[in-house]
Design goal:
Layout lengths: L3 E8 L6 H19 L2 E5 L2 E5 L12 E10 L3 H12 L8 E8 L8 H16 L2 E2 L6 E7 L3 E4 L3 E2 L10 E6 L5 H11 L2 E9 L11 H10 L6 E6 L1 H9 L7 H20 L3 E3 L12 H8 L6 E2 L7 H10 L3 H4 L20 H10 L2 H9 L3 E4 L1
Parallel strand pairs: 5-6, 5-7, 10-11, 10-13, 11-12, 13-14
Antiparallel strand pairs: 1-3, 1-4, 2-3, 4-8, 4-9, 7-8, 12-15
Helix pairs in contact: 2-3, 6-12, 7-8, 7-12
Bound molecules: adenosine-5'-triphosphate and magnesium ion.
Adenosine-5'-triphosphate binds next to helix 4 and strand 11.
């Protein structure tokens, strides 16, 4: 067998048992092949990928770490020889090094520690280097699996669960910083995230000429084929303007409207939960009392993955996933109705009275007729 360059991929498995584990593995394998175009085979808790674009692995959830590796036959002499050749450009006199062997194939006659010693001894002899296992200048990793693999570093993956193992959710995506991050975190737990965006335009198509298009494409990097429901909010705006004094309840009324409408779309499409970017106490609509007014309008769960996050933590994560710069671009979001003095504690009775007087159910029916769906 000729030495060959492949990509070795390890995934988290600690919490996975029984059927969940093969579901996780099969989905992850499928997602990796789709995102990279490579060909993946499985061997005892690791994947080996031939070809494809390994760069794209940075966008795949469920990967613990990955690396470029040399694949060769499982033979102590060949392994040692290849290690010595490969490290020669990198190792200098008096450098420290560590050899770390993992033996997944327990039938391989040379035990891990023994192989570490054999290879380490040769490196010492050849290069006058010294062993340091806790903080070496150069790490040499060897895995004995279906074949032998040699590699020198590990690239951290996104962790989490593979997209599509946890089911479909519907994320309420605004033009702000938070909801893209909330969507990302739900993807990280294996959800396929569908998006719902309320906008100020008269025509859904106009949204695609705005920054929302870039935000959606940035998020689509992590799951492909995202579905987006676009909804104009003018029916709601028209009706709420007829209610003469909503006494600081506009925001809660708007958010209840969004959630009620989202629920309808979720139920029609078999999406199991809603997602919002709420963070406790961040703005007036995000007090416990107001969140309660918003969540109790629906029968399906609303996930709020950012509920405990500080703004700065959200911004840091937004930068990491490349949505921050897009989210801060100017955009006309649906906030013209937001009062300057929103209530931090909406009054349940009053909310019901306002909704009745604007005939909210009819507003929802009329708005549902205006929804359009696109797929990226
Ligand atoms: P964000 O940065 O996500 O907009 P925010 O801190 O500005 O959050 P709000 O404007 O009160 O908070 O919105 C709270 C949540 O309501 C958002 O995170 C989002 O999930 C949802 N939401 C707000 N506006 C819209 C919209 N136009 N379309 C869809 N969902 C929205
Ligand atoms: Mg907002």
């Amino acid at each position: 067998m000729r030495d060959q360059i492949v990509t070795l991929i390890h995934y988290g498995e600690l919490s996975l048992k029984g059927r969940n584990r093969s579901l996780f593995e099969n989905k992850l394998l499928e997602n990796i092949e789709r995102e990279t175009g490579g060909r993946v085979t499985k061997y005892r808790g690791r994947f080996v990928m031939e070809g494809g674009n390994p760069e794209n692995l940075q966008y795949v959830f469920g990967i613990s770490w990955y690396t470029k590796a040399i694949r060769l036959e499982k033979d102590v002499e060949s392994i040692t020889h290849t290690v010595l050749t490969e490290i020669s450009p990198y190792i200098k006199e008096k450098n420290s090094f560590g050899v770390f062997v993992k033996r997944a194939d327990k039938s391989f006659p040379c035990r891990s520690m023994e192989l570490e010693r054999v290879i380490g001894k040769k490196i010492c002899e050849e290069y006058d280097a010294r062993v340091d296992l806790s903080n070496p200048d150069l790490s040499v990793f060897v895995e004995i699996a279906d074949d032998a693999y040699i590699y020198f570093n590990k690239t951290q993956g996104l962790k989490g669960l593979p997209i599509d193992v946890s089911g479909n959710v519907l994320s309420l995506l605004s033009g702000g910083i938070d909801s893209p991050v909330a969507s990302y975190l739900m993807m990280k737990r294996g959800c396929r995230v569908n998006f719902l965006h309320f906008h100020v335009f008269s025509d859904n198509k106009l949204v695609l000429n705005t920054k929302m298009n870039s935000v959606l494409n940035a998020l689509n990097r992590y799951q492909s084929n995202s579905k987006i429901f676009l909804v104009p909010y003018y029916q709601f705006e028209m009706e709420i303007l007829k209610v003469l004094n909503t006494r600081g309840h506009e925001l809660v009324l708007f958010r209840r409207f969004m959630v009620k409408l989202a629920e309808r779309i979720a139920l029609e499409n078999d999406f199991k939960a809603l997602v919002t970017g709420d963070s406790l106490g961040q703005v007036a609509s995000q007090t416990i009392d107001n969140i309660a007014q918003i969540t109790k309008t629906t029968s399906i769960p609303i996930f709020q993955p950012l509920i405990t996050y500080d703004k700065q933590e959200i911004i840091d994560l937004a930068k990491q996933i490349s949505t921050y710069e897009l989210s801060i671009e100017k955009y006309k979001d649906c906030c013209s109705i937001v009062s300057s003095n929103p209530r931090t504690k909406a009054n349940t009775k009053q909310v019901q009275v306002f909704e009745k007087s604007m005939d909210i159910d009819r507003v929802i029916e009329k708005t549902l007729d205006l929804v359009s769906v696109i797929q990226l």
